[in-house]
Amino acid sequence: MAPPREHTLTSTQDKELEVAYRLDTLAIHAGQPNDPGTGAVAFPIYQTSTFGQEEPNVHKGFCYARTGNPTRKALEDNLAAIEGARFGLAYASGMAAINGVLATLRSGDHVVSTCDLYGGAWRIFTKLYSKLGIEFSFVDTTKPALVEQAIKKTTKLLWLETPSNPLLKITDIAACAKIAKKAGVTVVVDNTFATPVFQRPLELGADIVLHSTTKYINGHSDVLGGALVTSDEKLHEDLKFFQNAIGAVPGPQDCFLILRGLKTLSLRVERHCKSAERIARFLAGHKKVARVYFPGLEEHEGHAIQKKQATGFGAIVSFELKADVAESKRFAGSFKLWTLAESLGGAKSLLCHPPTMTHASVEPEVRRKVGIADGLIRLAVGLEDVEDLLEDLETALSAVRTTRRRAPVTC
Ligand SMILES: *Cc1c(COP(=O)(O)O)cnc(C)c1O
Prior knowledge:
This protein is an alpha/beta fold. The protein has helices at about 25-30, 70-80, 95-100, 120-130, 145-150, 175-180, 195-200, 235-245, 250-260, 265-285, 305-310, 325-330, 365-370, 385-400, and strands at about 85-90, 110-115, 135-140, 155-160, 185-190, 210, 225-230, 290-295, 315-320, 340, 350, 375-380.
């Protein structure tokens, strides 16, 4: 693994931070100076829906809380700073952020994306926006040549997710961004699984970075949120227009909680990743497990690209049990310490059965084509002692009644 890159970022949003600071410093300081009036070290929660004006449209930077709120602005500036972007926007959920990008499209526009995608993104693409005249092509973005083939005159967006969900496929962001740039296509990278702690899509040529802040960014499984950051001013203005027009913004208390979570982001991510690697290696040698998907394993298809474009492998580990759907569902519910739940990125370790949970909205034939097998289990490794996590996993695995599995077909 390459030594961790130094994060020398400049927040253009915050005068006090015009000196370049590194990610861990920015996560604590950017956008949130001590309160000048009282000295309060924690940024205040501005619980207000509107702001008094001196004359019509003359105000102190805030007029109505859907358009802007100081606590939200602190979060938006912080998110921009840690991704090395000029501008940040916060949303009520990751899906609201996804919708915020799609809202900039018009009927007839075309989007190229991957088939191994967050289930909710797949759902809004295929069930809502395709109905409104936006065309989607799903290709295996781990092969940049397929991305190049899929781009046509009407293509406006290239939508990447890497590591992908749930199969942890790795897309070469720089290679795809180069192809997109030539064609004038905007590149969106969903960086939820990686976080800016170990993957920096803007530095690799992406135009917009998307987050479900519900996950690692907040990190405590107690808030829903989303974010978009970009350094392109025109793009930012478009996105901001629709953020206000649609109105799916987070409240100030949620913004405060996400700001609190951000302060320990890299400490948490480091520990998540370390435990995940241990667990992936344990599973890779287990007789009840047919295969393990984790980019940190040398045999993973995307291992070399991940090492090149990121400084970590993440904390999501997927694996295929040698079992049928019924036995896999029983297994998923048989843990003491791990919680059977959708989501990831919190302190508590979670697991889920993608075919019947996160990816249930993906049609069975598409699931099969993508390689989401009936026995697929996704682990979101939390912050508990890894020995306890391993013991619980071993107990659950030892009770599995194995059956012959069908080999997965990949798209
Ligand atoms: C959870 C998630 C989303 C959606 O975010 P919500 O906050 O649940 O709306 C989008 N992308 C990825 C990769 C996710 O894990």
